[in-house]
Specification:
alpha/beta, Udp N-acetylglucosamine O-acyltransferase, Domain 2
Length: about 270
């Protein structure tokens, strides 16, 4: 049985799952789909072609599926927003729909977007991602599974935040963050392997040891990155985790947020 406040405005064409709670002053558009047991507390706006998964909790003054702020967006076109299951979306979060016709902004399962976080048009956010207070993603940003983006951090358009990486609070990210690492600074640079994050994500001690070894090989001053890539790729029995790191480097469009000299010393010693 659904629990929809008489003070909410739910379009009759919206698709509402079972045991959904819609609190007062919420607005649900005609093309919205809301999964089972999701709870919209109050003053939530869900609009556009938006799919919201099951068992989510949406806090007041959140806007989901609102039209892209990209000035190239054609208001007459159809764009999409997809949000997975078991997500927690706190106060004043905004998630915008895609820009180009038929394009998608997507957020995976089990994510936590804390107050005032912003996900811009055409972003792809993986599973188990945490965005802390006022963390901001520009358009077309790709965020891997289990990534953690600190409070007040800002990520430039088209950047990639690798899986199980961490962006420190107040960082300015203008280049890609390698999977399994921690980046911080203004602009952000990778510092070390995200050991705690890897442990929390279930990586074994041997897997973490291998990732740290590869990180040191890639970013020692004795080797150019191109030569370091060849060295790592030539090593026998590289695990899939190593391949993930190599692919992130070779496929990067904005370049890597490479470590600074102090970081080299810290990781080589």
């Amino acid at each position: 049985m659904n629990h929809i406040s008489q003070l909410a405005v739910v379009h009759p064409d919206a698709t509402i799952g079972d045991d959904v709670t819609v609190g007062p002053f919420c607005t649900i558009g005609a093309h919205v789909v809301i999964g089972d047991r999701t709870h919209l507390k109050s003053h939530v706006v869900v609009d556009g072609y938006t799919t919201l998964g099951s068992d989510c909790t949406i806090y007041p003054f959140t806007t989901l599926g609102i039209a892209s702020q990209d000035l190239k967006h054609d208001p007459s076109s159809r764009t999409f927003t997809q949000i997975g299951d078991r997500c927690i979306i706190r106060e004043f979060v905004s998630v915008h729909s895609g820009t180009e016709p038929e394009s998608i902004t997507s957020i995976g399962d089990d994510c936590a977007l804390l107050a005032h976080a912003h996900v811009a048009h055409n972003c792809t956010v993986g599973n188990h991602v945490v965005m802390s207070h006022s963390a901001t993603l520009g358009g077309h940003v790709d965020v891997g599974d289990y990534a953690n983006i600190g409070g007040l951090a800002a990520v430039h358009q088209f950047c990639r935040i690798g899986q199980v990486s961490m962006v420190a609070g107040m960082a300015r990210v203008v280049q890609d963050v390698l999977p399994f690492t921690i980046a911080e600074g203004f602009p952000a640079h990778m510092r070390v392997v995200n050991k705690v994050g890897l442990e929390r994500a279930g990586f074994t001690g041997d897997e973490i040891k291998e990732i740290r070894r590869v990180f040191r090989t890639l970013f020692t001053r004795e080797l150019r990155l191109e030569d370091a890539l060849k060295t790592v790729a030539a090593e026998p029995d590289n695990s899939p985790n190593v391949q993930v790191m190599l692919d992130a480097i070779t496929l990067s469009q904005r370049g890597l947020a490479r470590p600074e000299s102090a970081t080299y010393e810290m990781n080589v010693s």
